[in-house]
Fold:
Amino acid sequence: MKHSTTNQRTRRGRGPARRIGRTLALVLPVVLVLSGTLAVTRVNWSGNSSDSVLTASSSDVSSRAVSRAPQDVLRDRLLLELQEKNPGVALTHLQEAVNGRPSLAQHCVSIARALGRAAVRAYGPTRAQAFARPVCDTSFASGVAATHL
Structure:
C-alpha cells in the first residue's frame, strides 16, 4: 500500500475558506474606505444646526472665499488712499508696488488711468492734473484728460 503525501499538501489551502479569505482581502478595504468617506461627509463640521449632508457644498457658504486678483486689490487700496490723502501719495505707492512686484506692470496703465479719473472727480480737472507724474507712461494724465473731455 502506497500513501501519497504530495496530494494532501497541494490540496491543503485550496478550499472554500481560502477563496473567501482572498475575496474579503480585496473587498474589505474598499468597503471600509467608502464607508469612512461617507461618514466624514455626513458630519456637520461647521457647527451650525442645519442638517446639510455636505456642508462645503451648501448654498450658505460665505462669499469671502472668492479670491480677488492682486491688481484689483491694489487698485481699490490706491483709490481709497487717493480719497483719504491725495493722488500724489497714491501714485507713489503705485510705482513702489510695480517696482516690488513686476507682474503688476501689465496692469499699471489701467490702474493709473483709474486713479486719474478718480482724481478728477475728487479734485477737479485743474487740481488733479497738478498731481500728474510719469508713472506708467503718464497714464494718470491721460485718465485726467479723458475724464475732463
Summary: The chain is about 60% helix and 0% strand. The CA atoms of residues 116 and 144 lie 5 Å apart. The chain has a mean pLDDT of 78. The two ends are 119 Å apart (CA to CA).
